[in-house]
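Chapter review: from sequence to fold.
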Amino acid sequence: VPTERVYESGKVYDMKAFDFVPTATELDADLKIASAAELIAFANAWNAGEYTSTVEDPFVVTLTKDIALTAEDNAVWTEEVKGIGFTGTPFTGVFDGNEFTISGFASTCPLFYEVSNAPVGIVKNLTLDGAISRDLSDITGTTNVGSMVGISRGQIENCHSLVDITISAATTISKNVRVGGLVAYTT
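The token string follows.
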């Protein structure tokens, strides 16, 4: 075991070799996702309350490759999933995109409906690519239009949106509409 030493800058010292033993560990993935079907299954399971996350043991989701969404995947996302954290169960784990891209995103719902910081709530290292077209003629309350996150109380780190957002309305909108390319609303 090496002992602690203080080194001055600008001087060269003879360093003896030693085995490095890290004192902290990377978070192990609780779930690895490699396909659109796995992403949809995870979102439905999270929204149904099947996963838990705590500060001491955050639920970690890691992408293992780029995911290309089809028109059918987007239809399921819009009609069934409505975003991770939609059903009153905000996302409170760690979602690591692992520097991968989810492409072909064309849902009218964001990837994450809500990300909360209680207990954790981190989305990181993810790129989202696609195009959203949203008609707001029939909105009845406050609406959040964002590609990656609708409402965020958590942390969004090293994320990128390449999603084109088009908003239309046949009538004058009299309700609150929050729009953001990456995140629609942050509290």
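Two observations follow directly from the output. The helical segments are 36-47, 71-81. The mean pLDDT is 87.
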